[in-house]
Each structure stands twice: as C-alpha cells, then as structure tokens.
What does this fold into?
Amino acid sequence: MNASFIKVLFLAFAIPFFFSCTSEEEIQSGAQLELPEDGIEIVDAWARPGRDGGVSAIYMHVLNGSAETDTLVAFSSPVAGLVELHETFDRGDGMMGMRESEEPYFPARSIVSMRPGGLHVMLMQLNRALREGDEVELSLTFSQAGEFTITAPVRSPE
It folds into this structure.
C-alpha cells in the first residue's frame, strides 16, 4: 500500500474519534468524570422538551472503562416511534446539518460526550409531549457491555 493511502485511511477513522471523544479533563460541564474500572457507565443524561408527534434529543456522557472498543447496536424509548444516533456536521456552506451517525463506536478507556451540537440520541415521532420536569426512559444495547436502561430528566438547554 502506498503511504498516502494509509494516511488518508488513518485520518478517515481518527477524525471522528477526535471530535466525539474527550479525555477525563475535557468534559464540557467542567465536572471531573472518572472512568469505571471496567465496562460502560452512562452519566449526566438529560433530554430536550418536545411536542407530541415531534422530536427531542437525549444527551449524556458514555464512559468506557474497558480495554476494548464497544459498539452501540440498539436503542429504544417508550416515548418515541423512532430512535436514532445522530451527529451534527458542517455542511460546508456555512450551515450545520444533522445526520444519522454511521459510527456508533465507544473507544476503549475513553469518554464520549453526547451534547448539543455534536453526537446525540434523536427521539422522533414522540407519542406524547415532553415537558420540563418529565422523565424519559431510554434503553441502550452495547455489543459487549449489554443492555442499559437509563432515565433522563427533561430540561431546556442551559
């Protein structure tokens, strides 16, 4: 293989991790998060308000303390007809866009921060309105760590 091709291949895989993974010292909230000894931990989950039939998003920090990359293979919520992992991206015309993420990977010994303007879980076709003070249940299934069910409070972005 030619060295230029290897560089391009490396960048294609490294850049998404650079933008979605943060170290323990770089968490947006300023709170110090510590990786678990092993496995996945989900902390600081919250959801945006949304109208009946509309959309919302859930944000959180996913802490992978294991020695292996884990993959998000399924997710669901009783409040939504459709749940997808989305990412915000620069469309190149000065505007931001949103698309389904094709790389639901959580690297070993890392913290992936899902936050507004980045990676997030999109709740679509809401079957009820989500108002501040409500709670949303979300089930996430990882290929190695298994299933987690979390409860996220609904609040407006700060």
User: Anything to note?
Assistant: The chain is about 10% helix and 45% strand.
